[in-house]
């Protein structure tokens, strides 16, 4: 699938989300009328909702009703643009329910709280609120203290929460499979077949967005089989179009099957069915969904004239474009390019770039304004909270200081006099102890330095003697007795071990580091390296280790190459010792 077709697919999936959201809000049954109507009025008509709520006598309400009233008023204030006051009102209601509300009441409260933050544009906090609402609703349903009516309302709320979470994930580009799957399960447990159908429709769209077309087709198949029995005929046609697109992307249907499935879509229902509370408008961009699907199918089938006709139909009925529909220019450019009309294709690509740039500028301006508004709001809240906290801390600190000063003035002076004499005695004792320790340490250091110098002279003399013995043997190695004696003196294991230890000592533990960093060397390699590091000539080494002179040179080169090719930390330093 080309990049252009993949982009058109993503745009179409975005339109599906908008359509299903309208279906859920505008055409679904409101079994939970008290929550849905209040939320709808607070969001869609916030000024009227604020006047109605403020006209109520809160003094005559119970604490539970007053907290619910605060949540609705906060939602209305946020929807009208008064973010700071709305958040404060919402927080009052949330504090009550967090302390005194049952799990089902807290679930409803978090649902309202999340709706308000989504209205503000704080998607992260909104998703967190809906997630909390889902957790509390599941916890309430797991308990046994709910009557049938409250249980049914909580189940309905759980379906709405998971469905809304899925829509938010979908709009933000996240993986929405899990929330929509939970919405389907919750709707099935609640017996709400209509909401189960909407959630299943969106679950299939989520699988499609993730590229799992086979699973999308399997998920949508129950709705496709029951399409003729769905009361809301517009939704039934959308199910058919969705199934058609899934098979188009999956590639398991022939062009003939795709066109036959397209013919089964009732175009008259799509054109006339209302999508919201008002009368359906002919210029409604949602009506071009069928045209876009037709353009994609005909383009893929190679019927470029039909594809051109439907893409033109879709573009002609649009006055404005958004991120979800700007890809139509890209699709149109591809159709005209395949028809050989590169001039029109180039013109559509220019329009695509122009609209894309303008949308980017608008989006950037909106983001800047939103960030500025959030910054100002957060700054005001932070300043107010900081000022209140500062005053509280100042008063508390002043009270604590006064009490501590009174106690300290009475007790500390007497303790100060008593401790002064004790501290003086302790200081004198510490001075005496320090002097004794200093004298002892100095004497030990002097003795240690003397011993070290003596050992050094002894070892250097022994090493010189060994070198002389080796040189004498190499030069005057005639006679059996002289040979045996020289070998006994120069090649004894004790002498060799002493030489290795001395080489390690005077080369800053170079032999020890070789053993740590090259554990796979043989003992003879370590002895050879120690003699090289100690400064023995190749002739002396061949005597010490009973090797030939060529063998000495060969082994030295071999060990240097191993060190150079390794990743040892002291590689350069060790190579310097072998030079």
Return the structural class.
Answer: mainly alpha
Helix content: over 70%
Instruction: Outline the biggest β-sheet.
Output: none
First-residue to last-residue Cα separation: 63 Å
Q: Average pLDDT, to the nearest integer?
A: 76
- The quaternary structure here is single chain
The number of E-state strands comes to 0
Question: In words, what does this structure look like?
Answer:
This protein has 579 residues and is an all-alpha fold. Helix 2 (33-44) runs parallel beside helix 4 (63-79), helix 11 packs antiparallel against helix 12 (233-250) and helix 20 (493-506) crosses helix 22. The model is unreliable at 1-10, 17-37 and 276-286 (pLDDT under 50). It has 25 helices and no strands.
Short summary:
By secondary structure, this protein is an all-alpha fold. The chain is 81% helix and 0% strand. It starts with a helix and ends with a helix.
């Amino acid at each position: 699938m080309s990049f252009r077709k993949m982009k058109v697919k993503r745009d179409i999936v975005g339109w599906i989300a908008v359509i299903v959201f309208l279906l859920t809000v505008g055409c679904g049954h409101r079994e939970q009328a008290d929550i849905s109507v209040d939320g709808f009025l607070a969001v869609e008509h916030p000024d009227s909702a604020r006047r109605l709520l403020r006209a109520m006598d809160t003094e005559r309400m119970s604490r539970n009703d007053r907290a619910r009233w605060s949540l609705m008023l906060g939602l209305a204030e946020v929807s009208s643009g008064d973010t700071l006051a709305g958040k404060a009102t919402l927080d009052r209601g949330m504090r009550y329910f967090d302390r005194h509300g049952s799990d089902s009441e807290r679930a409803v409260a978090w649902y309202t709280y999340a709706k308000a933050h989504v209205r503000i544009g704080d998607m992260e906090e909104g998703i967190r609120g809906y997630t909390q609402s889902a957790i509390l609703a599941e916890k309430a349903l797991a308990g046994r203290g709910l009557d049938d009516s409250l249980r049914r309302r909580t189940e309905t709320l759980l379906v709405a929460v998971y469905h809304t979470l899925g829509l938010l994930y979908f709009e933000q580009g996240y993986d929405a499979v899990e929330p929509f799957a939970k919405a389907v399960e919750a709707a099935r447990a609640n017996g709400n077949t209509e909401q189960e159908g909407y959630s299943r429709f969106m679950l299939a769209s989520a699988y499609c967005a993730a590229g799992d077309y086979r699973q999308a087709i399997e998920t949508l198949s129950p709705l496709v089989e029951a399409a003729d029995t769905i009361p809301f005929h517009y939704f039934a046609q959308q199910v058919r179009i969705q199934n058609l697109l899934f098979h188009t992307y999956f590639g398991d249907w022939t062009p003939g099957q795709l066109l036959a499935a397209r013919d089964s879509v009732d175009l008259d229902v799509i054109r006339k069915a209302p999508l919201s509370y008002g009368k359906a408008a002919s210029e409604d961009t949602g009506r071009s969904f069928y045209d876009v699907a037709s353009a994609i199918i005909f383009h893929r089938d190679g019927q470029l004239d039909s594809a051109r006709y439907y893409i033109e139909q879709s573009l002609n009925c649009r006055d404005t474009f958004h991120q979800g529909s700007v890809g139509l220019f890209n699709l149109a450019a591809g159709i005209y390019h395949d028809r050989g009309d590169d001039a029109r294709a180039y013109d559509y690509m220019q329009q695509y770039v122009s609209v894309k740039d303008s949308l980017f500028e608008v989006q950037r301006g909106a983001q800047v304004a939103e960030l500025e508004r959030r910054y100002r709001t957060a700054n005001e809240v932070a300043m107010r909270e900081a000022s209140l906290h500062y005053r509280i801390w100042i008063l508390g600190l002043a009270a604590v200081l006064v009490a501590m000063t009174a106690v300290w003035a009475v007790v500390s002076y007497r303790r100060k006099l008593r401790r002064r004499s004790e501290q003086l005695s302790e200081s004198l004792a510490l001075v005496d102890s320090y002097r004794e320790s200093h004298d002892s340490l100095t004497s030990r250091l002097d003795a240690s330095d003397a011993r070290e110098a003596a050992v050094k002279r002894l070892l250097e003399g022994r090493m010189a003697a060994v070198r002389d013995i080796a040189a004498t043997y190499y030069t005057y190695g005639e006679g059996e007795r002289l040979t045996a004696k020289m070998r006994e003196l120069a090649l004894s294991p004790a002498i060799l071990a002493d030489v290795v230890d001395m080489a390690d000592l005077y080369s800053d533990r170079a032999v020890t580091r070789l053993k740590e960093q090259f554990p796979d060397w043989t003992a003879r390699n370590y002895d050879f390296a120690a003699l090289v590091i100690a400064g023995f000539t190749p002739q002396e080494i061949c005597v010490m280790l009973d090797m030939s002179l060529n063998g000495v040179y060969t082994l030295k080169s071999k060990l240097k190459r191993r060190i150079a090719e390794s990743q040892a930390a002291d590689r350069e330093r060790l190579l310097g010792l072998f030079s």
